[in-house]
Amino acid sequence: MSTLSTYWSRYRSVPIVYRIGTAFVLGSVFGLVVGQPATRLQPLGDLFVQLLSMLIIPIIVFTLLMGARRLTPSKLGRIGGQVVGLYAITSGLAVAFGLLVANVINPGENLQLTGGEAMEAEAPDIVDVILGIVPGNVIGSMAAGDILPVIFFVIVFGYALAVVEESDQVSEQVNEGIESFYNLAEAGAEAMFKIVWGVMEYGVLGVFALMAAVFGQAGVDAILPFALLILTLLLAVTLHIAVVHLGGLVMLLAGQSPIKFLRGGRDALVTALSIRSSSGTLPVTMSDADENLKIDESVYSFSLPLGATINMDGTALYQGVAAIFAANLVGVSLTLPEQFTVVVVAVLASIGAAGVPGTGLIMLTLVLTQLGLPLEVVGFVAGVDPILDRMRTMTNISGDLSVTTVVAKWNNAIDFTSGSWVGEPRGPAPADD
Ligand code: ASP
Known about the structure:
About 75% of the residues lie in helices and about 0% in strands. The chain is mostly helical.
């Protein structure tokens, strides 16, 4: 028994990110070797995703309530402008990177378009997107997991609390009530972060199951023909993360070491790679921002949920790669104005799209329609999308965190003298806790 507990403590002393990383590799190999039967593990993986999803709305509400206390409308306007501006610029650059790399490699050149089914998608109406920010029914929005209207309501509510607290016409009782609200939010956020690390412990098994199911389903034969497409995307996202996120944002604008940044956000990056959902990863992204990157709630509680819905560098970049891939398949080449259209459509569509698995594939329909390319391409690549989606989602999260770091620095809302900036990041509770 004592040997068992020694093994257990040794296992727990390995940072969670390494354990999940190992599960990722072992699960993939297991899926490839075992094949179809490995898909039976899917429910174990779904449980991990569901456990994380359970935390999304509470963690947004608690942290945002704390953040909103320190936000005046002018500060919110400034931070909001900086966040949205950087999100838009980095998304545009991402599509350009995708187009650039794909133009060099031409990933679809030796392939035949076969067996693909056309899929339909409608462009999100920009008026609906903007109207959707205001919740008609805030409980309904929370229940549906709609992030933007929840952000809107909590900011308005948090700000109103701060205004009431500052007015000298309110009773002692009301002031005490407001204080308890903030205390509740602080306690709630702390509890949520604890739960996140507990869920990540289960994530080791969950990620093994998810990867086994994906590779068990796809199999080597289904993946091989798309190897060049996968490599093109891998190269493009690596370049984008290295040049724009790490080089431009973290090093140049925030003046920090990219290694320390990556160490601080690694749990979120690995989770994104594993579950392919920016929204589902949000609780981990927020924990990393708070506990490792030492960013203040006044910035991350707002910028990260917003980023999970409107900032998708990886998804936008993929549109560039896929557009060239589709053009290769039918043997045409895209003119410069057509490639510019891809940038505009991809950036706009990524703003209205939800951060859930497969969004990038559906968005591709819009891009192909715009270019007059066959919609069958969407069905053609659908089989390998679970692999491509991982890289997109990880890039999306890296974009959210790097922009948040820069905006936090601009607003004196980050502590570069602690957390992963000076040493090892905090992970789950130590083994003997
Ligand atoms: N799965 C991605 C995300 O959640 C979106 C996509 O399909 O590219 O961020």
